[in-house]
Fold this sequence. Notes:
Blueprint: H1 10-24, E1 27-38, E2 45-50, E3 55-60, H2 62-65, E4 77-87, E5 92-102, H3 103-122, E6 139-144, H4 149-161, E7 166-171, H5 179-193, E8 198-203, H6 217-225, E9 230-234, H7 242-246, E10 249-250, H8 254-261, H9 265-303, H10 306-349, H11 351-394, H12 396-401, E11 406-408, E12 426-430, E13 435-439
Parallel strand pairs: 3-5, 6-7, 6-8, 8-9, 9-10
Antiparallel strand pairs: 1-2, 1-4, 2-3, 4-5, 11-12, 12-13
Pfam families: Exonuc_VII_L, tRNA_anti_2
Subcellular location: Cytoplasm
Function: Bidirectionally degrades single-stranded DNA into large acid-insoluble oligonucleotides, which are then degraded further into small acid-soluble oligonucleotides.
Amino acid sequence: xxxxxxxxxxxxxxxxxxxxxxxxxxxxxxxxxxxxxxxxxxxxxxxxxxxxxxxxxxxxxxxxxxxxxxxxxxxxxxxxxxxxxxxxxxxxxxxxxxxxxxxxxxxxxxxxxxxxxxxxxxxxxxxxxxxxxxxxxxxxxxxxxxxxxxxxxxxxxxxxxxxxxxxxxxxxxxxxxxxxxxxxxxxxxxxxxxxxxxxxxxxxxxxxxxxxxxxxxxxxxxxxxxxxxxxxxxxxxxxxxxxxxxxxxxxxxxxxxxxxxxxxxxxxxxxxxxxxxxxxxxxxxxxxxxxxxxxxxxxxxxxxxxxxxxxxxxxxxxxxxxxxxxxxxxxxxxxxxxxxxxxxxxxxxxxxxxxxxxxxxxxxxxxxxxxxxxxxxxxxxxxxxxxxxxxxxxxxxxxxxxxxxxxxxxxxxxxxxxxxxxxxxxxxxxxxxxxxxxxxxxxxxx
Length: 446
């Protein structure tokens, strides 16, 4: 007896396992050796990723593998980013890969991304902590190799553009396992000495391994904790390091950093000329404002003269007088207008007008009454003629006029049956011009 337990199909079971794998493990990074690589016509890649103790089937679909930049070969060590899933048709678990790179560079890139994410979450890249770079720098410190090309390029540009700029060199290793702590120590030393206004930290170009000291956490935290503003100048324009993200300003190259903080002598001369012009304009404006103030004071002095005040009072009096006359005229005009309205209203309410109006009304009603009486009389005559004609058509006299007569018994009942009379009865016969009285002597049926 199975009771209330549901029965699963194989497909349902595989789907459940697939969902469990995806939810429980999700995205993973792992390194291994490629074997059994195949590339069918569909464009997808299928291979086995193994190490000396285990192996797992992998699939990298066409929409992901075209970004790899190379065709994997059997025996290559690679670093992959993949999702753990289940191939339901065969019930085999596999990896679906979305990123694949050769193991050497790939491991460094993975470390780079992990540290970058960690420091970003801590806020070391937040713009709120970026210190402004001074506009007019008088002394600059350089943390780099004393024998590298970067130092030579920076110094050459600074001397050409601004010979007065003081240069302080903090020599250090910039490559190898011991470089990162030495770079951090030199940044701390420059802060302790506090003998420059800004620091340039960097080196020339190279591979990811060559630039790696500038991706170390110790260097990133030394840059973040520095009280001196720091310009990161590592490698070429396309190279990005952790130091670039933490620094207060990133320069594409060491030479670009030198140009950012130095001011060209010709530009300084131009600035001086601009300042000279600004000072001259400021003096002209100052003198102009003082002259305006003097004129204003003269005008105020003149405006305080008694004659001027008297003239103002007279002008004010004339203005008030005109306003008063205008107000009186306006009031008179308004009263006259109101009087006209009342006069018209009184005329409309006069008894003579009302009597005349009622007379006209009575006359109109009288005329309407006469016309209505005539109309009714005419209509009555017409209806009477019609009724007389109709009455004449049914009158017994009219029947007699056509040659008929009407006979009645002694009780003046019209004879309609022989049963009403008998011999010896007196009957009357009505003709148009007379009434005939007769005695019944004989009754004969037709």
